[in-house]
Specification:
- This protein has about 180 residues and is mainly beta.
- It folds into two domains: about 90 residues, Ribosomal Protein L25, Chain P (Beta Barrel); about 80 residues, Beta Complex (RNA Polymerase Alpha Subunit, Chain A, domain 2).
- It has two helices and twelve strands.
- The strands form three sheets. The chain has a six-stranded mixed barrel. Strands 9-7-10 form a three-stranded mixed sheet, with no helix packed on it.
- A hairpin with a 6-residue loop joins strand 2 and strand 3.
- The longest helix is centred in the first third of the chain and has 10 residues.
- It starts with a strand and ends with a strand.
Amino acid sequence: MLEGIVRDSMHKQATKQLRKDGYLIANIYGKGLENVSAAFKRNEFIKALRVKENIVFEVSVAGTVYQVVVKEYQKHPLTSDLLHVDLMVAQAGVRAQYLVPVETEGTPLGLKNKGLFIVHKKRIPVKCTLENLPASFNLEVSNLDVGHSILIRNIEMPANVDCYLDPRVPVVGVIKAK
């Protein structure tokens, strides 16, 4: 579980000092909850995100444990260091928007026919409750030939999970190489 501290001061100097000490600034919020301004060790946060097995993970701030989802993050434009992250509390029984990752299985047939495999959407936005949240969408791509795509409408959505993207949006596809 990821451990964090509560930020006491919201001033620019205090934020700069935390970043200088290796902390990542975070806001934790949720429906009906009071916002929590927190800070996490940057390297520990990145390691926790890499090893997590699900979209939802646990953080502990000032003795309170939250189940959170990364909603948004900000990077430094030159160094690509993480500067800020927004964490939404995933509450049971509350419908919210989540970004579910797309995982592909197999090697597309079109790669042998001089095509390029393109992933158009790495994550698919869905609206559902925490109980119905899928871990990922697994797509079988071994039958894709040059010019073929898997669209949003071709993906089987679980019960009580809604996707508000246009059904004609491609998720993965194989295009002709020039």
